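hiii so um. not sure if this is the right channel but i have a protein structure encoded as tokens and i wanna go backwards to a sequence. like what aa goes where. can anyone help
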């Protein structure tokens, strides 16, 4: 029989997905397609399962918090990119560069074998990769960033990237603290 936490997670995801489904009945401002629901469900459930896998043998609440911050930050990065995009709009292929940040995290976590001190390094590497996205975007897509209409402009691009850098650094610091205890 499946773990009770996983059943609760599936029910929570279903409940969360009911919010846009109900909203669609009352407003045209929310217009999700079947693929939107599938992607959102996959992202939410995948995030929950990643968290459960990573903290399965965790002895420290600090470690659990570090994992939670890391996976929620990654989820938010993907969600923002899919919903509105960060460089230009959601259809701008330049936004694909953010998946390199996630790749750094996945490869880093795998190499770290979820050991806290090494996870701290992996999250610091994610923060550096996130910061580099702004630099790369300004070098390659400068015109799109500066002239963005109705979406993220230069200040927004830098601010959003700094926000994610702060989240990844925060998670890294929590992992470092967990390694000391």
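sure thing!! here u go:
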């Amino acid at each position: 029989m499946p773990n009770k936490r996983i059943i609760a997670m599936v029910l929570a995801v279903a409940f969360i997905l009911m919010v846009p489904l109900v909203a669609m009945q009352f407003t045209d401002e929310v217009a999700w397609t079947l693929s939107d629901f599938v992607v959102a469900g996959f992202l939410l459930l995948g995030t929950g399962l990643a968290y459960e896998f990573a903290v399965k043998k965790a002895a420290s609440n600090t470690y659990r918090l570090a994992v939670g911050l890391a996976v929620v930050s990654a989820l938010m990065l993907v969600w923002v990119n899919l919903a509105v995009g960060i460089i230009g709009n959601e259809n701008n292929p330049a936004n694909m560069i953010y998946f390199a940040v996630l790749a750094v995290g996945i490869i880093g976590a795998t190499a770290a074998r979820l050991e806290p001190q090494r996870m701290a390094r992996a999250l610091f590497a994610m923060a550096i990769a996130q910061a580099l996205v702004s630099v790369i975007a300004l070098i390659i897509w400068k015109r799109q960033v500066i002239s963005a209409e109705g979406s993220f402009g230069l200040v927004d691009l830098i601010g959003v990237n700094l926000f994610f850098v702060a989240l990844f650094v925060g998670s890294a610091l929590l992992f470092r603290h967990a390694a000391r205890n």
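oh and Helices lie at 4-26, 34-54, 61-83, 98-112, 116-140, 142-146, 154-180.
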